[in-house]
Amino acid sequence: MSMIVGLIDYLRGNEKKSAVVAKERLQIILAHERAGRGTATPDYLPALQEELMAVIAKYIHIDRDSFKVQLEKHDQYDVLELNITLPDKINSRV
Amino acid sequence: MAKVIVVTSGKGGVGKTTTSASFSSGLAMRGNRTVVIDFDVGLRNLDLIMGCERRVVYDIINVINGEVSLKQALIKDKNCDNLYILPASQTRDKDALNLEGVERILDELKESFDFIVCDSPAGIESGAFTAMYFADEALVVTNPEVSSVRDSDRILGILAAKSKRAVEGLEPVKEHLLVTRYDPKRVNTGAMLSVVDIQEILRIPLLGVIPESASVLQASNAGTPAIHLDKSDVAEAYRDVVGRFMGEDLPMRFISEKAGFFKRLLGGH
Ligand SMILES: Nc1ncnc2c1ncn2[C@@H]1O[C@H](COP(=O)(O)OP(=O)(O)O)[C@@H](O)[C@H]1O
Ligand SMILES: [Mg+2]
């Protein structure tokens, strides 16, 4: 099948130029490799999460699962994201 | 304040040493006190490209080990008044090049030079790492070819994460893309990545494009950096690169096909 498509492309003269193929391959592999470099989470993240959770637990009752700390890498900056899902009714302790 | 510039690439054979020789010569020709250091311990070549191989007596490892002074090891360039070469060791192993020793040398050089150009070895091992660690700016030499572009990306990752500037949280290393061995003819037929493609992928500012040219071999045969050649695209392209590096706003040249004889005859461009 793909051979036939390839043949049609070839006959129509829209066979991809090799430089285009090169560029596409590079974009895919580098996106993958860059993401791999980024996922090395800084080693302070778990401790930070524990401490933040302890502070928040002083005021709001939350479970462990509803609390997430994430570091997202961008080109020019990183974003530290806190994601806290609050229970339906906030059980304030005071 | 002296600037440390690393010429790096990851991949071997892309034109780092050719570039180090011409770039440092170009800086010196403009009156900057310049020193170029060969970091390729065990595979020294910069001396050949600069044409000073027979004047090498001491090398960077001798200086690091305190066996001789920097002054004794520096070789004055034969073409430029303001240029000195610090050769790599041909006999020691690359681990002799430690970070503390290199830092001491760079600090001493900073007192008497404006620019310190570091010709990196290939790879991402200790030699390449040592060459880039202290850099303020980096020339990332890239050929229009998949493995070279990928390796450059890898080097950019290391510069951004592991260089001294990165580790100490200072302003990041200033990165410059230098595309070399460029063949506009093959780019036009779609057989070679274009400079726009490469820039889109690597996403760093373009400092220049050096065309593929037989004159580079001629220059290395003679032991004269390519920037000194007469009537050569490569020489002019390297002079433009130095000009841009010094802040001049120069248009990119040698990125489109030269008009053939008949085209010129018929008034084409
Ligand atoms: N612009 C160019 N045109 C043609 N050949 C080149 C060009 N730049 C470098 N070369 C050749 O490529 C080879 C590798 O160059 P070199 O500067 O030693 O690379 P590296 O230091 O990155 O290993 C040499 O044979 C050199 O003559
Ligand atoms: Mg080299």
Structure description:
The complex is a heterodimer of chains A (94) and B (269). By secondary structure, chain A is an alpha+beta fold. Chain A contains three helices and two strands, in the order αααββ. Chain A starts with a helix and ends in a 10-residue tail after the last strand. Helix content of chain B is 41%, strand content 16%. In chain B, strand 3 and strand 4 form a beta hairpin. Chain B has an eight-stranded mixed β-sheet, with helices on both faces. Chain B is globular. By secondary structure, chain B is α/β, with parallel strands linked by helices. The interface between A and B is medium-sized, with 15 and 19 residues. The structure holds adenosine-5'-diphosphate (ADP) and magnesium ion (MG). The site of adenosine-5'-diphosphate has 18 residues of chain B, from helix 1, strand 7 and helix 11.
Brief characterization of the structure:
The complex is a heterodimer of chains A (94) and B (269). By secondary structure, chain A is of the alpha+beta class.
Terminal CA distance of chain B reads: 44 Å
Helix and strand sequence of chain A? HHHEE
Structural class of chain A: alpha+beta
**What is the averaged pLDDT score of chain B?**
94
Indicate the multimeric state.
Answer: heterodimer
Given as residue ranges, the uncertain stretches of chain A (5+ residues, pLDDT < 50) are none
The gross shape of chain A turns out to be: elongated
Largest sheet of chain A: 2 strands, antiparallel
Number of E strands of chain B: 8
Instruction: State the share of residues found in helices of chain B, binned by percent.
Output: 40-55%
The strands making up the biggest β-sheet of chain B line up spatially as 3-4-2-5-1-6-7-8
